[in-house]
Design brief:
heterodimer, A: about 100 residues, mainly alpha, Helix Hairpins, 3 helices, B: about 170 residues, Four Helix Bundle (Hemerythrin (Met), subunit A), about 75% helix, globular
């Protein structure tokens, strides 16, 4: 590999931390969802880099990455459906304005 | 080649920072699309062409369309008067930097078990997609089927949650 494994891992860690920061700090629920997708993508980078560098069967890590992508798509579909339902009922998508379970 | 890979990484990180910090959600969704394309490029570098194609098709094609639809349906938040962040900015920033420092330290210290043969084996095979298909339908067939059930449940659930209630 031209670039050492550690550099891919550090790249994944940086993207993960940016996503973590966004998840903690964003007020908008759609922004939080975008940050979560960033986190899942950084995990995919790690999986593929590991499967490339350390395993004899390179498709193992890639299959896990495929599963992660599918689950991320499922999560974003359900999450956005919840956001839209919330907007219809409460007219807000800001996470800190949603503090009632029942109204 | 090496320079191009590092440039791709740096550009992806810059776009990711934009995606998290820009106040307009529409802009941050576009920046996120750029990050996804950068990561697809990194998959190509790592000889995972199938994953790069899946990334572009599913994320850039489907997920981003969905996100941009949701941004447009919930328009109010693009007002300038609405704060984009909550009060945890400094805690989040400090915690993030500390966490990142720890992770990088651990990554650099750990002796990863590197396989010199593995690299040669991957570079040689251009039949990456074929191997993924075979493994998906032989060794990993049960998770594959479970995933199909999950996706069906997700489609039904998303429709049920997002549809209008009947007027009572």
């Amino acid at each position: 590999m031209i670039v050492p494994l550690e550099h891919f891992l550090i790249f994944g860690a940086i993207i993960f931390t940016i996503g973590l920061y966004g998840t903690l700090v964003r007020r908008n629920l759609i922004g939080v969802l975008i940050s979560i997708e960033l986190i899942l993508n950084s995990v995919n980078v790690n999986l593929v880099a590991f499967s490339k560098a350390t395993s004899m069967a390179p498709e193992t890590g890639q299959i896990f990455a495929v599963f992660v992508i599918a689950m991320a798509a499922a999560a974003v579909a359900v999450g956005l459906a919840i956001v839209i339902a919330l907007y219809r009922v409460q007219k807000t998508v800001l996470a800190d304005e949603v503090n009632l379970l029942k109204w | 080649m090496q320079f191009a890979i590092y440039a791709l990484m740096v550009i992806s990180v810059v776009w990711a920072v934009c995606a998290v910090t820009l106040r307009s959600l529409f802009h941050s969704a576009l920046c996120f699309t750029a990050v996804l394309l950068g990561i697809a490029g990194i998959f190509v570098v790592l000889h995972a062409e199938f994953l790069a194609a899946v990334q572009v098709l599913i994320y850039v094609g489907a997920v981003m369309t969905l996100v941009i639809f949701a941004v447009m349906l919930t328009e109010r938040l693009t007002d300038v008067s609405v704060r984009a962040n909550n009060q945890q900015i400094w805690i989040g920033l400090l915690g993030g930097v500390a966490f990142l420092t720890l992770l990088i330290k651990v990554i650099l210290v750990t002796p990863w078990p590197k396989h010199p043969d593995a690299v040669a084996a991957t570079v040689m095979t251009s039949e990456n997609t074929k191997h993924i298909g075979i493994a998906l339908l032989s060794q990993y067939v049960f998770p594959f089927e479970v995933l199909a059930v999950v996706l069906t449940a997700v489609i039904i659930g998303a429709v049920v949650i997002a549809k209008k209630d009947k007027p009572a």
